[in-house]
Write a sequence for this structure.
């Protein structure tokens, strides 16, 4: 079982992306506001300048003639206004309290205080529209009397508004585009800066079950403490695994050494004892020793399989090689019963845990030899099929007995016909577990006539 | 054959030595790696039986150290039985691997198998009258005739050959031939002796039944 590492407390990547995106959003809004403001200012200033120029042009035509203030309205004064927008233009020229020409109801405020020679701007409302006005005061001499004349040119602001609106919309589009790009970039930045972290995680998870060497890879400064801690943890883990392995080895040694002595002594005693009942007793003793040492061994193997099944080593291996080695290892034992082991193997390469598969094959073959009658043959076939490989072990023994054969792979379950043969009831369980861990399965069946056929089915790459 | 047994468990060592001596093998016993080095410096061996956990070190380290200069086959005897241990021992150059406690008949079978696989200089021929018996190769040569024997026949003939003229009881033969794991009756001995008789009958090697006591082999009669 692999425990999920705690509850995820948010994601650094998402947090980083969100933070960067928020900053980008703020900057986008600010830049939009600035561009809009500047655009309006620029448009208004342009209008003001043209209004001022127009008023100045009109004011320059003011003159006194025969005791009257006269003026001309030059065409250029209005055409320059038309050049910046389609807005309506109004004007008013006053001399003293008198309106010389223009729209007398144009709301020109407090004309008296305006210092002469300078253009003053106002914003007001005229005929339902907002207008911008520029007033220029000039003092003309009528006879010997100074007379204040005021030239006011006004223009509605719709065009200016439209222009700034257009610019603002353009700025908004740009800001949104900028924001989008920024979000993409922040996502990328978050990913990139977190990549070393993922690389470390992958480097750790790619490792085999027994690989506890320290991680030696360049890492950003920020990750160095994590890497250090990880390496220290692996070191401690390695030590504790070594300690427990040593302990198991030591325990096995302690148990098996005296058992070996007992067995050896019993065999020596058998040589000199003639009394049949005493001999039978010694044989039973030897049998019990074998049972217990075999059970101890198989229990340890079972534990090893359970541990390694979660962390399969991915060795490149040839099932034919494994089978050949298993056959070689069991040949002397088989020869003691004059059992011939025949091997027909075609190369079947696959990826798997060599130690475990070796163990599974040995268990199945060991069973076949153990339960075979003397002077018979055990056949091992390694076959490569389309998407699978099969190792088939057939014997000419008593078969698997009555009843469902699947149950024989259950822990500590032994067939109904195994009396007198040393076994732990774990051999087939181990083999089945190993195959399951590799995505394969163990198929048990009785052969027609006599004997059993045990197939190890494995998916091959 | 000359064996070197490196084993610190004295009772076990003594039992192994006496058992191998029954087959006429000379066995030197070393209780530590240092003692083993001393023996190896002065004596030529045909086979080394090596325990893994020894008072002055790990037998596997010894194996790695000496593999380069030693031609002798090595069988590792160990109380460690883990899956990976076997692989490690074989990778380090052991010829075979036997987990304690072990069956003496199996130990002998494995010794023979290793010697056969590594057969080279090692010759262990026994003269049986006019015949030459090679228990390692499992052949019986009598003049122009050569007989290939099967595993149990070799074993049975070897036991008789080591005790020429001596009466061997069925129980004695059973102890020597069969693993104690197997349930074997004395009838099986009769079957095997009968079969061996038929095979070697025309080679001039005779196995007589001594009523009530067992069998005796007379060679060259």
């Amino acid at each position: 079982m692999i425990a999920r590492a705690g509850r995820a407390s948010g994601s650094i990547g998402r947090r980083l992306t969100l933070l960067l995106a928020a900053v980008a959003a703020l900057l986008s809004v600010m830049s939009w506001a600035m561009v809009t403001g500047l655009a309006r200012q620029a448009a208004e200033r342009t209008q003001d300048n043209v209004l001022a120029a127009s008023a100045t042009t009109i004011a320059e035509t003011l003159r006194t003639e025969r005791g009257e203030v006269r003026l001309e309205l030059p065409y250029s004064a209005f055409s320059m206004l038309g050049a910046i927008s389609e807005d309506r233009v109004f004007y008013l020229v006053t001399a003293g309290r008198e309106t010389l020409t223009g729209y007398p109801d144009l709301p020109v405020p407090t004309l008296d205080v305006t210092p002469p020679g300078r253009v003053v701007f106002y914003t007001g409302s005229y005929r339902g529209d907002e207008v911008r006005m520029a007033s220029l005061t000039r003092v003309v001499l009528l006879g010997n009397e100074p007379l204040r004349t005021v030239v006011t040119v006004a223009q509605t602001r719709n065009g200016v508004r439209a222009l700034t609106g257009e610019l603002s919309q353009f700025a908004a589009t740009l800001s949104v585009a900028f924001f989008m790009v920024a979000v993409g970039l922040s996502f990328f930045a978050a990913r990139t800066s977190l990549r070393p972290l993922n690389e470390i995680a992958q480097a750790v998870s790619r490792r085999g079950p027994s690989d506890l060497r320290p991680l030696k890879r360049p890492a950003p400064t920020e990750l160095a403490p994590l890497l250090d801690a990880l390496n220290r943890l692996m070191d401690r883990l390695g030590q504790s695994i070594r300690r427990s392995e040593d302990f198991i080895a030591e325990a096995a040694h302690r148990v098996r050494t005296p058992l070996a002595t007992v067995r050896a002594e019993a065999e020596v005693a058998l040589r000199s004892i003639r009394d049949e009942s005493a001999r039978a007793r010694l044989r039973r003793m030897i049998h019990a020793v074998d049972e217990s040492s075999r059970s101890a061994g198989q229990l340890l193997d079972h534990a090893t399989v359970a541990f390694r099944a979660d962390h399969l080593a991915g060795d490149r291996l040839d099932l034919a090689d494994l089978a050949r080695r298993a056959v070689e290892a069991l040949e002397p034992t088989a020869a003691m019963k004059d059992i011939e082991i025949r091997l027909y193997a075609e190369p079947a390469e696959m990826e798997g845990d060599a130690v475990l598969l070796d163990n599974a094959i040995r268990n199945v073959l060991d069973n076949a030899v153990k339960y075979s009658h003397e002077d018979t043959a055990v056949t091992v076939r390694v076959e490569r099929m389309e998407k699978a490989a099969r190792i088939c072990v057939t014997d000419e023994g008593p078969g698997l007995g009555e009843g469902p054969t699947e149950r024989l792979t259950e822990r500590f379950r032994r067939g109904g016909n195994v009396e007198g043969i040393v076994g732990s009831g774990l051999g087939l369980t181990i083999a089945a577990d190993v195959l399951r861990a590799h995505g394969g399965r163990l198929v048990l069946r009785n052969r027609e006539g006599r004997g059993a056929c045990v197939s190890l089915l494995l998916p091959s790459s | 054959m000359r064996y070197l047994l490196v084993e610190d468990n004295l009772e076990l060592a003594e039992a192994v030595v006496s058992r191998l001596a029954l087959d006429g093998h000379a066995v030197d016993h070393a209780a530590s790696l240092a003692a083993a080095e001393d023996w190896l410096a002065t004596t030529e061996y045909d086979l080394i039986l090596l325990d893994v956990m020894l008072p002055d070190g790990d037998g596997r380290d010894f194996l790695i150290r000496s593999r380069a200069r030693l031609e002798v086959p090595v069988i590792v005897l160990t109380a460690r039985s883990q899956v990976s241990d076997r692989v490690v021992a074989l990778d380090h150059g052991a010829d075979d691997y036997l987990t304690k406690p072990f069956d003496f008949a199996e130990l002998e079978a494995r010794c023979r198998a290793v010697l056969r696989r590594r057969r080279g200089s090692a010759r262990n021929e026994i003269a049986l009258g006019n015949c030459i018996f090679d228990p390692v190769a499992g052949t019986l040569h009598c003049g122009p005739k050569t007989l290939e024997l099967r595993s149990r026949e070799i074993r049975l003939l070897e036991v008789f050959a080591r005790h020429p003229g001596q009466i061997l009881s069925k129980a004695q033969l059973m102890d020597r031939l069969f693993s104690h794991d197997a349930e074997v009756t004395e009838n099986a001995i009769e079957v095997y002796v009968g079969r061996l008789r038929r095979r070697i009958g025309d080679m001039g090697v005779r196995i007589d039944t001594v009523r009530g006591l067992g069998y005796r082999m007379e060679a060259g009669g």
In short: Helices of chain A lie at 12-60, 75-84, 158-205, 224-272, 276-309, 319-335, 354-371, 427-437. The CA atoms of residues 248 and 254 of chain A lie 10 Å apart. The mean pLDDT of chain A is 84. Chain A touches chain B through 49 residues (CB under 8 Å).
